[in-house]
Amino acid sequence: MSASSTRDAKGRPLVAVTGLGIVSSLGCGATDTWQALTEGRSGIRTISRFPIDGLRTSIAGTVDAFETDPLCAPLLSERFAEVAAEEAVTQSGIGDDFPGALFIAVPPVELEWPQRQALAEASGDNEDITYRSLLKAAASRRFDAWHDLFIFGTVADRISDRFGTRGSPISLSTACSSGATAIQLGVEAIRRGEMKAALCIGTDGSVNPESLIRFSLLSALSTQNETPETASKPFSKNRDGFVMGEGAAALVLEDAEAARARGARILGYVLGCGEKGDGFHRTRSSPNGEPIIAAIRAALDDADTAPEAIDTINAHGTSTPENDKMEAMGCTAVFGERIASLPISSNKSMIGHTLTAAGAIEAVVSLLTIQHGRIPPTINHLMPDPSLTLDVVSTARDARVSRVLSNSFGFGGQNTCLVFADEPA
Questions:
Q1: N or C: which end of the chain has fewer CB within 10 A?
Q2: Domain total for the chain?
Q3: Alpha carbons 367 and 146: distance in angstroms, whole number
Q4: Does the keyword Transferase apply (predicted)?
């Protein structure tokens, strides 16, 4: 297949990326975030947004540049998404009349405790905060406003209106693979010929006391609060859990033929998408690793790419004992002995685990890796896990990068892998 081809090896429209945008705890915008990532800086810090007394984990990769009132996940997620999408759409030069749909990964939403408290007080039952008291306040004007804020799909509606995307916006939530799933849906829609472009976003502003408590009850979070910047340590022997993060990333995907026809600058291509569901457990991975292995192989097959053609792996790499072990197992099964010399890195060591946004953020990082020929590090990898035979990039590494495999593995066995490239072949 030549670089000028507009169809892939399977005869489908090639999907090009013409715009990128990102918001993270390291900065707003691709330039600032990329510089910080390659310098190995950490955006993880002690939480200052709310009281942390009594919390087992009091650190996170928060984005503190934005204020919303009330401070809640839907509004933060919407704000992050808007900023990331603005950067991506502007870079693409696609104009105000966006020729495609919105696919956006957003966190599951529900009333948070401050809103429940306020509604209970409005009902007159502030000493007995129960769902009964919430129902008593359900007819209030305040409840109507919050119902609109917290209903699933509201963020998508507002972002769609803001950027003029076509058709019904698609909101989705597939746990920690959500951002990658949003990109997959956009790719598939373009391949089917349903649209010439898609705006794909992953966003998450869920760092709040409830989320921290819930993940703590699952023993999923790091409790190394004393030195926040060293708490997230993927693939290290002394890893003890992930660190929550937040942010957003947006990609403008286009039919390559349409992008070239309008003279757009192509930043890279999405060559392959692989997805595999696994009902083994609500949080744990299947112990034989088969769903992870199947997702990676499906992405490579979809991209018509042999394992030998992958130059680096953008790991899911959460820093939890089990996830890192299972990801290493899956990669070893696919890449064989080469895994010991195939560079692998996890940006969660610096920005934390951005949950719903993670797959989209890592897609942007993968494309920037290709563009700059530089693999960001996995910081804090000072005590390698001897059971994981991986070439973990511990300091930024210059390399010729043509193809990147980006892994996203979510709770409940929702696994999505993407293959990005500089050229179609």
A1: N
A2: 2
A3: 38
A4: yes
Q: Which of 72, 176, 200, 417 is catalytic?
A: 176
Q: 132 and 210: one domain?
A: no
Please say whether the beta carbons of 235 and 72 come within 8 A. no
DSSP summary character for residue 174: B
Residue 197 to residues 102, 155, 165, 228, 425, Cα–Cα distance (Å): 9, 20, 9, 40, 22
Task: Report which secondary-structure segment, H or E, holds 349.
Answer: helix 348-351
Catalytic residue selected from 28, 72, 316, 417: 316
Handedness of CA 73, 79, 83, 86 (dihedral sign): positive
- In angstroms and rounded to an integer, the radius of gyration of the C-alpha atoms of the chain is 21
Model pLDDT, residue 212: 93
- Tell me how many degrees the CA angle 175-367-257 measures, rounded to the nearest 5: 105
Query: 124 lies in which domain range?
Result: 113-150
Is 353 tagged catalytic?
yes
* Catalytic residue (choose from 331, 353, 381, 417): 353
Concatenating the DSSP letter of every residue in 247-284 gives EEEEEEEEEHHHHHHTTPPP-EEEEEEEEEE--S-SSS
Question: Would residue 200 show up in a list of annotated catalytic residues for this protein?
Answer: no
Do 178 and 300 reside in the same domain of the chain?
yes
pTM of the full structure: 0.92
